[in-house]
């Protein structure tokens, strides 16, 4: 009886040993996850200096990746304030990307910058915003509408509030005049 029990125990352990065999995989050959590590909804980010609000960024969705980059897949909206706290200009785009190491933002798709003080509007399909330099720029087609004229061209460099700008290649200037 004891011999039969030992034989039976050996058979059970042998079967269990073969059943627990794991397949070892090379970690370098494994498919790595490349999607976002964090996803935030209804995001509002405030940038201030000496307790004065300078910039307000809002987005319905913000995704952050392992390398630190951020993406705004549903677009983003930015408000720029002057030293007195008055809303000066706005920026919006249908898609956005952020490189926090360089404080560089990228906007794509129906990008619009409105200078509320000068009543001027910039429209383009792609725009970069350098927060450190307080500048916006693009090499794409731009259209600037002012109360007196419409300017078109290719490429632009401007202050982030659109108070000063330079179009690289002007392709058209249309004046409004009432007669």
From TrEMBL:
Segments crossing the lipid bilayer: none
GO molecular function annotations of the record: lipopolysaccharide transmembrane transporter activity
Gene3D superfamilies assigned to the protein according to its UniProt record, in alphabetical order: Lipopolysaccharide (LPS) transport protein A like domain (2.60.450.10)
GO-annotated cellular components: plasma membrane
Pfam families: LptC
Protein name: LPS export ABC transporter protein LptC
Taxonomic lineage of the native organism: Bacteria, Pseudomonadati, Bacteroidota, Cytophagia, Cytophagales
């Amino acid at each position: 009886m004891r011999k039969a029990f030992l034989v039976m125990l050996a058979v059970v352990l042998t079967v269990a040993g073969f059943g627990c065999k794991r397949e070892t995989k090379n970690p370098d050959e494994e498919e790595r996850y490349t999607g976002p590590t964090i996803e935030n909804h209804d995001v509002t980010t405030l940038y201030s200096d000496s307790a004065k609000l300078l910039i307000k960024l809002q987005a319905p969705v913000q995704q952050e990746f392992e390398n630190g980059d951020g993406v705004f897949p549903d677009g983003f909206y930015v408000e720029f304030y002057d030293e007195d706290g008055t809303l000066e200009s706005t920026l919006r785009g249908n898609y956005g990307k952020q490189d926090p190491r360089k404080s560089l933002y990228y906007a794509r798709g129906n990008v619009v910058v409105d200078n509320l003080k000068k009543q001027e509007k910039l429209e383009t399909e792609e725009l970069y915003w350098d927060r450190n330099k307080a500048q916006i720029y693009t090499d794409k087609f731009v259209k600037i509408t002012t109360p007196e004229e419409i300017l078109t061209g290719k490429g632009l460099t401007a202050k982030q509030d659109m108070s000063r700008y330079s179009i690289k290649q002007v392709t058209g200037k249309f004046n409004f005049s009432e007669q």
